[in-house]
Ribosomal RNA small subunit methyltransferase E
Amino acid sequence: VFIETDANVNQKIMLNEKEAHHLFDVLRTSDKETIRVVTNTSQVFLARVQQKPYIYLFDKMTVEQKAQHITLCCSLIKQDKFEWMLQKACELGVTRIVPFESRYSVVQLDEKKQQKKLERWSSIILASCKQCNRNDLVELTPIQKIETLKDFQSECNLVAYEKEDDPSKHLAAYLEKDPESITICIGPEGGFDEKEIEKLKNDHFSSCSLGKNILRAETAACYILSCIEYQTHC
Ligand code: SAM
């Protein structure tokens, strides 16, 4: 389970309604079973259930810190594709997701809808992190505009641009430098507007190619994260 606070060994914790329902009613966990608890600061504890909605933390696990911090700035795309992309990005090791509006996004959300979406996306991320046994929770930021993506920069900052045909600007070339943290922006179904690319370049994002085939945005996300994972372990 995930808890939103810091914690200590030998502490009794009250789970929120959703987590308690999942653990006690859906999984029907017994007090003989050991459960793994991850906090919002990526600490991992072992615990046992008590009376719903309480659990008791009895041990702390030492976990290896993630080597690379990966921020994926994802343009808004159609709902089902976006949600699929969130799920897969969590499985493939993203650490932060920054949704953003761009000129050719098919999806445009008003403020009220944005809040609802963020809540839904958070629960998709939580479920995916649990399903793939992660020891950390992927951060989701509020929906941004192109102009504010610079606030989420890393050591290496890229924008995936299908018109980039310089072979020295393939993603692999940037990954060879082994950056400790990386931020990559992916455009919507209709691609980036050239002015948006210019704006990002002015903000010190370098354009990068993902090969000669044009990938769908959600495929581009999977491709990028798989390449990073491969590079990290080879
Ligand atoms: N406007 C484009 C078209 O229809 O020709 C397609 C955009 S593509 C579906 C969505 C996004 O995926 C792009 O904005 C880009 O960020 C990324 N992308 C897809 N294929 C790419 C490639 N070969 N190199 C770099 N980025 C790519």
Summary: Helices lie at 17-26, 79-91, 111-131, 171-175, 194-202, 217-233. The pocket of S-adenosylmethionine is lined by residues 160-162, 186-187, 189-192, 209-211, 213-217, 220 (CB under 6 Å). Residues 111-131 form the longest helix (21 residues). The mean pLDDT is 93.
